Each structure stands twice: as structure tokens, then as C-alpha cells.
Amino acid sequence: AATFAPDRTTADHRAVAIWLLVCAAMIFAMVVLGGITRLTESGLSLTDWNPVTGNLPPLSDAAWQAEFARYREIPQFRAIHSWMTVADFKAIFFWEWLHRLWGRLIGFVFAIPFVWFLWRGRVAPSLRPRLFGLLVLGGLQGLLGWVMVQSGLSDGIEVSQYRLVAHLALAVAIYAAILWTALGLLWPATAHAPAALRRGAGAIVALVFVTLCAGGFVAGLRAGFIDNTFPLMDGSFVPPDYLALTPWWRNWFENAAAAQFDHRILAETTGGVVLVLWLAARRIVLPRRARVALHALLAAAALQLGLGIATLLLVVPVPLGVAHQAGALLLFTAALIASHALGTGWRRGALTEPPAALLD
Questions:
Q1: Residue 235 to residue 308: CA distance in whole angstroms
Q2: Above pLDDT 90, what percent of the chain?
Q3: Which residues make beta-bridge pairs with 236?
Q4: d(CA 79, CA 206)
Q5: Which of 13, 74, 159, 179 fits as disulfide partner to 185, beta carbons 3.0 to 4.6 Å?
Q6: Phi, psi angle pair for 340, to nearest 5°
Q7: What are the φ/ψ torsions at residue 60 (nearest 5 degrees)?
Q8: pLDDT number for residue 234
Q9: DSSP per-residue string spanning 168-215
Q10: Which pLDDT score, from 0 to 100, does residue 350 have?
Q11: Is the predicted pLDDT of residue 4 greater than 70, yes or no?
């Protein structure tokens, strides 16, 4: 197996980390594109999937008419988009086409440099299985996206909220793994914060992830378009129809009012825990990188709460809805970076610690 030369280890780590950060940034953009696709109801505009050759946009009027004819055959068109002309269809087609194209670009940007780094012996042996696993997960994510789309082509006018959240959760998990790996290459972790702070930061990562997934159910059920008041819902703290479905657990995933309430509570809890962690950390001497990361985490939490409330009160205008989704991933990013900066990063494997000049 290829090994690092002592004088190029740090350079190799940095090069691989930069490549991974580019991939993470592209996935961030992909999640935002997914939000636009959802909010503009564009996701079902492409009714077929060509994973190898891709989907070229129609290049003639006849081709556009044929594509539009395929869309007119699905239930969504008849139920909510029967007013559309070809010109209207082109607008929603664009977002879904761009979303799929961007996904393929991410695959190329990940796979081609990965092979090159392997060939040049610039990937630590302990890191290779992780990166290969991420490559496989990326392919499965594309397949899961098509499985999600299929759920809305014949049986209903929307995709399944379960498949939507699965697609979102896998994207965020891949993003987290890539970002965390890059951070581990740039700043191998050392335990420089009390265990309670590290556990608190880890809990915030989990809370933000769960809140983000709960937001997926809000989007899938179009729950943001009801009870557009704050802090009460339909005049009550808990919406009166919170337990309208049986068995009770179905309300979390299939009842729009319950999904919105759960998302609110999770968001408010996350904001509160972030504030508690920030206040607790102020009493402790921490490295500069950790302090900056905690300040950024608090700012991201405040921004996201503000975006969420504004999106709700204004009944989900597309720009605010997209900003809210981007804010969720920004908050998740800040939580990951803060958790890593507090010392919960990669401690084992073939990575060697870089020179002190690369640290704070």
C-alpha cells in the first residue's frame, strides 16, 4: 500500500481536505437546490430517469411538447397544474433538471479526484474505506432520489414524505461525513475541552439533525401553509388536532399540524441548548478556534430561528423558504465545526498530527 513521505504528509492531508470541502460545498448547494425544487413543485416534472446518460433538456419545440405531454399524464398535473402551458412547464422543468445535473457533477467531482489521489498514494490507508463508502452512498443517494420521485408519479400528487425525508437525511449524513473527515485532516482533534462541553456539542449536532428531518416532514406535508401564527397554533400552544390520527405515532409523520408543532418545539429546544452551551463555555478558557466556532454556532441558531418564524408568518414565500433550508444546513455545519473544535474529532488512524503552525 502507498505510504506518505514524511515531508509531504501535511501537504497531502491539506490537498485531500480541500477536495473534500469542495465536495461538501457542492452538497450544500444540492440541498438548497432540493429545497427550491420542492417549494416550486418541480420535482415530478421529469418523469423518467437515465442514470448513465442523464437527461438533456428538450432542444426543440416538438421535444418540449413531448416532455410536457408526459407530465400531463401524471396525477399532479391534473390535480394542481392543469392551468400550465409549455412556458410554465419549462420553469419547473429547469429546477428538477438542474438538481439532477448537479447531483451527477458531484459524483464526478468526488470520484475523479479520489481515483487520482489513490493513484498518487496521497490518501492514508485508514481513510480509503471511508472515502470509498462515501462514493457508494453517493450512488445510492441518486437511486433513492428516483425512488422518491416514483412515489409521486402514479399514486398521488406529491412524493411520499417518508421518502422525501430519507432522501434529505442521507444527503445531510453524507455531507456531515465529508465535512467531518476534512476537519479531521486539517485539525486532528485533541481533548482540550471538558467532557460535558464535548457531550453538549455532540447533542446539539444530533438535535439539529433531528430538527432538520422534522422540517422535511413539514415540507412533505405542506404543513408550513397552516397555522401561520407564532407562538400559538390555532390559538393554543398545542394544536387541538395534534392527536387526530390513530395510532398516535402516525401524527408525527402524517398529521400536518403535529409535524409543524414538533418542528417548532425541536427548533426552540435546539436554540435553548445552543445558548446554554455558549454560556457554559464562556466560563472556560478555550482555544481561539473553539471560541470562534461557538460564537458562530450561536449566531447561526439565532439566524435560523428568525428565518423560521418569518417563513411561517409570511406563509412560506419561496425565497424565505429556501433561505430557511439553507439556514438549517448552515446551523448543522456550525454545530459540526463547534463539536470538532471542542475536541470530539478523529483521534485514531494513520493520520499524523500536522505542525503546530497549522493549528490555532
A1: 19
A2: 76
A3: 233
A4: 38
A5: 13
A6: -65, -40
A7: -150, 165
A8: 87
A9: HHHHHHHHHHHHHHHHHHHS-----S-HHHHHHHHHHHHHHHHHHHHH
A10: 33
A11: no
